[in-house]
Design a protein that fits this description.
The complex is a heterodimer of chains A (378) and B (427). Chain A has 378 residues and is α+β, with helices and mostly antiparallel strands. Chain A folds into 2 domains: 182 residues, no CATH class; 178 residues, no CATH class. In chain A, strands 1, 3, 4, 5, 6, 7, 8, 9, 11 and 12 form a 10-stranded mixed sheet that branches. In chain A, strands 2-10 form a two-stranded antiparallel ribbon. The longest helix of chain A is centred in the last third of the chain and has 42 residues. In chain B, the strands form 3 sheets. In chain B, strands 3-4-11-8-10-9 form a 6-stranded mixed beta barrel. In chain B, helix 2 packs parallel to helix 12 and helix 10 packs parallel to helix 13. The longest helix of chain B is centred in the C-terminal third of the chain and has 42 residues. Chain B is elongated and about 110 Å long. Classes of the chains: A alpha+beta (378), B alpha+beta (427). Chains A and B meet through helix 2, strand 4, helix 5, helix 8 and helix 10 of A and helix 2, helix 3, helix 10 and helix 12 of B.
């Protein structure tokens, strides 16, 4: 018991007496640990964060009518979307297409949930406003080129409904949509408006889902939907899913390699600093040996100091590293980062091991030397 | 005498100086590697994002909407609008020619599968086409490199396979077509027998189409030398306010702004330049790809920038820490120098010269090691070399100099303020 108290007193007093040097060492360890925990946190969170960025490419899973049906049933779609984990859904936009006429010229009208479209197709460029409620529509750039309309204009939409009766209704243009794709030839209106015009509801042509998940998970979802819901055929949008996989793998590999390189270099930096701090105490080691201390007890003492330093630095690093990762995540992705609890012990162990090792090497060589030579100076 | 002392210090403390040089080299290599990778990551990720396919669609003026709107590709009342195949090479002569990675022309036609009533969309295209440019260069381009996500059973066509076809999985499924079968296509009075070399699953509308080499489609549709659209894959700069205004109307810009816009690789300026070299063409950015590319590129660059800053700060602190530790350790020596009558400034210069020489040696070694690290990262992640930017050299040099000075000056001052007698006595 007494022996242990003495041991602790020696370690703590050595740390306190040599405050400035120990601060230097502690700082080195803390920097290393900060970089370790910060970079590893970022590395683990990259797929999730970047994956969400990749959702700007739009829908990655679509539901189309299955079997011989020509349309989707809204109830069946609800059943199908039930298979998608709610927390992964970025947006689900249903579409219904009908032919309508403006000034006796035929156009395609798409009824949809425009709030969801905003989420599934963030790349749409709308000049003007997104429609706020019923009665206002978005029109595609190509439609604009054929009939001169600008935001705020009112036009009459006519056609025949499901029962063969003709209708005509006034709509206001709230915005013009540019995508560079086929969407530019459509008139987008709230689904309820189109259903009101056509006189029936619950019928859809296609449902676009934007899901934040890997290709594997999407395949599973598609498989489940295909098996359990008869009238819905799920299809992966290969261009989006496949390419996302390729690019994301590369990005992750990049961050991985960078992390490894940075960690390696930082660890060596920490080790050299620790070595310098310890090497300077050769005289102290010589004095202890001259007083009759055994090599083992000297090594034990230095190791104890190293471990204490490593532990303190590691703890500091865990906190600072998380703060750093959080800053990066908020600046880059505007989202907070998920905390990896496993990183606390990992960082602690690594920093303790590295400081311990870095202390041991110079102490070893110092203890091998004859105390008389060390004490006399080199 | 001064240099002899410096030399003496190096010889006497070889081990310690080596350790400092080594640490500085590590820090410098880290800085050089990270800066090089960071400066090049935009280009590299941009290349990777090309797997999403084309970001510009070139169509003939006025023909853009008929097919999509009514499903009427040709026939009475439709004025046929096409682009000339012979003009496509011009695309590699524009200002940003270097940024055009790939392009593929398409000729669409409606054909009948013999023994079936239904019409199928036939698309003639380049699969992997060798093109000799007017500039004397040559280029290999085509669909195979632009549709990397296609899942092909059988094999991709080559451009010489004029009697072969690739069939979309939905068409194939409906008509029971297998790889190796022969299909007969009818268009008006013209018929052609083709061998099915591959069946593809593209996960989109393309699965409803049959792809053949361009000459075959031109012959079947009787449209020699014409194409109906061109998909272009170009490396672009993310849009900013200027690009957005220019996209609305290039004439609304002042002459100076227009020059900046024209000479920046915005998707809109590349489109504008394509329209200049191809008669009666409209080039449109495919926003789904162009916009998302910009967003992802910006995020990646910002991420790399922050990681670089972290590692630079980390290595800077690490180095100055070590320098401080090694200067502190020389308290006895400095005390002795003072005791024999040396003044403060020569001592400062002596220690600083030693440390700076070490730093220069370490920095140079580290810079080259850093280039090595950058190339390792480039090759293992992107499979291509990282461009070495000369501007990294002054950055690394300044960083190393600052860090060593910041690490040594405060500690030297501290040591000079101590009394020689106390130091020599050992506290």
């Amino acid at each position: 018991m007494k022996r242990q108290t003495m041991y602790f007193r020696m370690i703590t007093s050595s740390l306190i007496r040599r405050r400035s040097r120990m601060l230097v060492a502690l700082l080195a360890v803390a920097i290393g640990a900060t970089i370790l925990s910060g970079l590893v946190t970022i590395y683990y969170d990259i797929p999730r964060q970047m994956g969400e960025e990749f959702r700007s490419y739009g829908a990655n899973l679509i539901f189309v009518p299955g079997g011989g049906d020509s349309a989707l049933n809204a109830d069946e779609v609800k059943k199908a979307t039930g298979f998608i984990p709610a927390e992964d859904i970025v947006g689900i936009a249903p579409y219904r297409y009908e032919t309508v006429k403006i000034n006796e010229q035929p156009f395609m009208a798409a009824g949809t949930d425009l709030n969801e479209v905003k989420k599934t197709s963030p790349y749409w460029f709308v000049s003007g406003q997104w429609p706020a409620g019923s009665g206002s529509v978005l029109i595609g750039q190509e439609v604009v080129e054929r009939i001169r309309l600008s935001p705020g204009d009112t036009f009459t939409l006519s056609g025949t409904d499901i029962g063969g009766k003709s209708f005509s209704h006034d709509f206001t243009v709230s915005g013009i949509v540019q995508t560079g794709g086929t969407e530019e030839a459509f008139i987008f209106m709230p689904l309820s408006d189109l259903e009101g015009l056509m006189g029936n509801s619950g019928v859809l042509d296609v449902v676009e889902c934007s899901i934040s998940a890997t290709q594997q998970v999407l395949n599973d979802i598609a498989g489940q939907v295909g098996e359990n819901v008869d009238d819905v055929t799920p299809r992966l949008v290969k261009r989006v899913t496949q390419s996302e996989g390729t690019v994301l793998t590369k990005l992750q590999a990049l961050v991985y390699l960078v992390t490894v390189v940075v960690l390696l270099l930082t660890m060596i930096c920490v080790a050299t600093t620790m070595m310098a701090v310890v090497a300077e105490r050769r005289r102290e080691i010589g004095l202890k040996k001259a007083l009759g201390a055994a090599n083992k007890s000297i090594i034990k003492e230095f190791l104890g100091e190293g471990l204490l330093l490593g532990g303190l630095g590691g703890l500091l690093g865990v906190a600072l590293g998380f703060a750093f990762a959080q800053t990066v995540s908020i600046n880059v992705f505007a989202r907070s980062i998920s905390f990896q609890p496993l990183l606390i012990p990992a960082t602690l162990i690594v920093s303790v091991a590295i400081t311990g090792l870095a202390c041991l090497l110079p102490v070893r060589s110092a203890t091998d030397v004859d105390p008389a030579i060390v004490l006399r100076g080199e | 005498m001064f240099w002899r002392m410096v030399k003496g210090a190096f010889l006497r403390q070889k081990g310690k100086m080596l350790m400092i040089a080594f640490t500085i080299a590590l820090g410098a290599s880290l800085a050089a590697a990270m800066l090089n990778v960071m400066l090049d990551v935009g280009d590299k990720v941009n290349q990777e994002l090309k797997t999403y396919g084309a970001n510009i669609n070139v169509l003939p003026k006025g023909a853009s909407l008929l097919d999509d709107l009514y499903g009427v590709g040709e026939g009475s009342g439709v004025s046929d609008q096409y682009l000339k195949e012979s003009e496509l090479g011009n695309m590699k002569t524009i200002f940003w020619a270097h940024n055009i990675v790939d392009f593929t022309p398409y000729l669409n036609a409606k054909v009948k599968l013999a023994a079936q009533d239904s019409e199928v969309k036939l698309v003639g295209t380049w699969f992997s086409h060798h093109l000799d440019l007017p500039t004397g260069e040559s280029l290999d381009t085509g669909m195979e490199s632009m549709k990397s996500w296609w899942d092909v059973s059988g094999q991709w066509l080559a451009d010489q396979d004029e009697n072969s076809a690739m069939v979309g999985s939905l068409v194939a499924g409906r008509n029971n077509i297998q790889v190796g079968d022969t299909i007969t296509l009818e268009s008006g009075e013209r018929t052609k027998k083709l061998t099915v070399k591959g069946i593809f699953n593209a996960g989109s509308d393309e699965d409803e189409q049959i792809y053949v080499p361009l000459p075959t489609a031109q012959e079947l549709a009787d449209r020699a030398g014409l194409v109906s659209s061109v998909e272009v894959s170009a490396l672009t700069t993310p849009d900013n306010e200027l690009a957005r205004r220019a996209a609305q109307n290039p004439n609304s810009l002042s002459i100076k702004e227009q020059e900046t816009w024209y000479c920046t690789a915005y998707v809109s300026s590349i489109c504008y330049q394509i329209e200049e070299v191809i008669t009666d063409a409209v080039a449109k950015p495919i926003r789904q790809v162009a916009e998302s590319e910009g967003a992802i590129l910006e995020k990646t660059q910002l991420l790399m920038l922050l990681i670089t800053i972290l590692s630079l700060v980390g290595s800077a602190l690490g180095i100055s820490n070590l320098v401080t530790a090694s200067v502190m350790e020389r308290s006895r020596e400095i005390g002795l120098l003072k005791a024999v009558g040396a003044r403060n400034s020569p001592i400062t210069w002596l220690v600083l010269t030693e440390i700076l020489i070490t730093a220069v040696v370490g920095g140079v070694v580290g810079y080259f090691a850093g280039l090595g690290f950058a190339q390792i990262i480039g090759h293992s992640v992107f499979g291509s070399a990282i461009d070495i930017k000369p501007m990294v050299i002054p950055l690394v040099a300044v960083l190393v100099a600052l860090v060593t000075l910041a690490g040594s000056i405060p500690s030297i001052r501290l040591l000079l303020s101590l009394r020689p007698a106390e130091v020599l006595h050992g506290r």
